[in-house]
Specification:
Helix content: 25-40%
Strand content: 15-25%
CATH topology of the largest domain: Sulfite Reductase Hemoprotein, domain 1
CATH architecture of the largest domain: 2-Layer Sandwich
Distance between the termini: 33 Å
Radius of gyration: 23 Å
Number of domains: 3
Shape: globular
Bound molecules: siroheme, iron/sulfur cluster
Structural class: alpha+beta
Number of helices: 19
Number of strands: 22
CATH superfamily of the largest domain: Sulfite Reductase Hemoprotein, domain 1
Length: about 575
């Protein structure tokens, strides 16, 4: 019996989610966006278009810090959009950087460029009259924002490995090819934002006319670095190389990190190993993991719609067999590989091609000129002289890549002058990350990006108190259980519950292959520190050689290990 939506769900008991209606009625993602764009009586979009602009890479937002004040003045919220660009593998050329720097400065509410946990950048606070210009400026330098949000395959990540340049180039080409293969075919983006010729779209051969049941995320990774955090993603291609040449990929399916507070039917889940595929079968496998999820994913309940829930509902073997049948490809046994790290290599490294690469730490990926640290100006000045490219890492940092030996000194001077290189940063700081949250994220329940600097200082004090000042804990904070800074793969993960209140999860590991378990619920800063203080003390006293904090709390039974999310995570 085919496992399609009709057979897996009782249509009477479970009507389709409203997003299904609006996708179906949208004429392949056009909706009435153009009409809304011309309506200057409001800065916002109608409810359906509010959803549809996401497929074009934008979210309607407003500044939550000033929402109440505007309401008192009987003004509508200051509607604007956040734009997220499509940058497979996170590579951006200097001339592209200069264009986005100019746009951010002149036309965004905050003036910032925000690097994300998925190797791209966001503009926050673009007003309606400037939206079309924004797309045209980006298009002028070869950047688009197609399918960076909405129920589609999102920006495809690729490990930023500048050292093994040949292998990286091959893996990067695959991330671009997969991204392009899975892109929507509709010309709505070109028509609406670039004034392209109207061309009737008649089908979406891969995504289908109602697109996917939910967002879908893909990576290409190069072991041993798990920077991309494969277990946060629906579909992962783990590069298998022989003598420095890519020969194929191990395929991992069904990762995802979001949950909903109080709903035990939702949980973060690791991806399952489906096996090895050769290069010539890669696109077919990508296409049919997507097509099976398209047809079998839950279109009634968006909270249970992602691939991870489809796998748990139909069974891994059934899902995998259907992919094999549709693709006409049989997975081979997985090839050996190991992830041993997922952090960025800060400072200079030399690649095997003799080029030099400088990774700079950018707290939360927020690029602005701060007092004493003119980060944005610094990157602009580097872009003006840099001959190589920039690479945005999945840890919200930036690599100035492909620097010739005789240009290294100039780049380093500019980086130091503008606070992009700071040797005083602790290991703890370099391993901490937060999502955006307030004031732009409408879903934030607690502060995250704005809280992280303070929290890092407090954790640094605890480490120093126990003689561990040189050590680090992979610390990630998210403002709500959607988990955008991947707290559900951290050694210590804080998940926003309400203003100043977080759930404290412990027991992820340093390489991102274990999900942390709830340890304390709905606690404020004092209780967080009270919980961590004795545990860090025990870790300092009793750890095995080089044992990470997450491994320690699992080994000593502080929290139980999450092995099978569906049964263990909420137990
Ligand atoms: Fe996310 C929604 C920011 C990576 C899971 N995410 C949002 C929105 C757009 C809020 C909204 O829907 O209105 C946030 C915008 C905040 C703002 O003002 O910018 C937002 N997510 C981000 C970013 C910018 C966080 C960051 O600090 O870098 C990341 C952008 C990535 C990108 O470039 O595409 C970001 N989001 C993630 C990740 C991590 C990852 O993919 O590696 C996750 C967890 C992995 C996963 O998907 O399971 C993630 N974001 C979500 C979810 C929960 C999805 C779900 O399965 O239920 C939402 C809410 C939703 O989709 O309904 C969400
Ligand atoms: Fe917003 Fe929640 Fe994502 Fe943070 S985790 S950016 S608060 S949706």
């Amino acid at each position: 019996m085919p496992h399609n939506v009709a057979t897996l769900l009782d249509p009477d008991a479970a009507p389709l989610a409203d997003n299904e209606r609006l996708k179906r009625e949208s004429d392949f993602l056009r909706g009435t966006i153009t009409d809304d764009l011309q309506d200057r009586t409001t800065g916002g979009f109608s409810p359906d278009n509010f959803q549809l602009i996401r497929f074009h890479g934008m979210y309607q937002q407003d500044d939550r810090d000033i929402r109440a004040e505007r309401a008192e003045q009987k003004l509508e919220p200051l509607h604007n959009v956040m734009l997220r660009a499509r940058m497979p593998g996170g590579i951006i050329a200097p001339e592209q950087w200069l264009a986005i720097d100019r746009f951010a400065e002149q036309f965004t509410q905050y003036g910032s460029i925000r690097l994300t946990t998925r190797q791209t950048f966001q503009f926050h606070g673009v007003l309606k009259p400037d939206i079309k210009d924004m797309h045209q400026v980006l298009n002028g330098v070869g950047i688009d924002s197609i399918a960076t949000a909405g129920d589609v395959n999102r920006n495809v990540l690729c490990t930023t490995n500048p050292v093994e340049s040949a292998l990286h180039q091959q893996a990067y080409e695959w991330s671009k090819a997969i991204s392009e293969h899975l892109l929507p075919q509709t010309k709505a983006y070109v028509e609406i934002w670039l004034d392209g010729v109207k061309a009737k779209t008649t089908e979406e051969p891969i995504l289908g006319e109602t697109y996917l049941p939910r967002k879908f995320k893909t990576t290409v990774s190069i072991p041993p670095n798990n920077e991309v955090d494969v277990h946060a993603n629906d579909l992962n291609f783990v590069a298998i190389a022989e003598a420095g040449q890519l020969v194929g990929f191990n395929v991992l399916v069904g990762g995802g990190l979001a949950m909903t507070h109080g709903d035990t039917a939702t949980y973060p889940r690791k991806a399952d190993d489906f096996g090895f595929v050769s290069l010539e079968n890669t696109l077919a496998i990508a296409e049919h993991v997507v097509s099976v999820q398209r047809d079998w994913g839950n279109r009634a309940n968006r909270k249970n719609a992602k691939t991870k829930y489809t796998l748990d509902r139909v069974g891994i073997d059934v899902f995998k067999a259907e992919v094999e049948k549709r693709a006409g490809v049989t997975f081979e046994p997985s090839r050996p590989y190991a992830f041993t790290t997922r952090g960025d290599r800060f400072g200079w490294v030399e690649g095997i091609d003799g080029k030099h690469h400088l990774t700079v730490f950018l707290l939360n990926g927020r690029i602005l000129d701060y007092p004493g640290k003119a980060l944005k100006t610094g990157i602009r000045k580097i872009a003006e002289v840099h001959q190589g490219d920039f690479r945005m890492t999945a840890n919200q940092n930036l690599i100035i890549a492909g620097v010739a030996a005789d240009e290294r000194a100039q780049i380093e001077t500019l980086a130091r002058e503008h606070g992009l290189l700071d040797d005083t940063y602790s290991a703890q700081r370099l391993h901490s990350m937060a999502c955006v949250a307030m004031p732009t994220c409408p879903l934030a329940m607690a502060e995250s990006e704005r809280y992280l600097p303070r929290l890092i200082g407090l954790v640094e004090e605890l480490l120093a108190k126990h003689g561990m000042a040189q050590e680090h804990i992979v610390l990630r904070v998210v403002g709500c259980p959607n988990g955008c800074a991947r707290a559900m793969l951290a050694e210590v993960g804080l998940v926003g519950k309400g203003p100043g209140k977080y759930n404290l999860h412990l027991g992820g590991n340093r390489i991102g292959t274990r999900i942390p378990k709830l340890y304390r619920e709905n606690i404020g800063e004092d209780a967080i520190l009270d919980a961590l203080d004795p545990l860090i003390g025990l870790w300092a006293a009793q750890r095995d050689a080089d044992e990470g904090f997450g491994d320690f709390v699992i080994r000593t039974g502080v929290v139980a290990e999450v092995k099978v999310s569906k049964t263990d995570f909420h137990a």
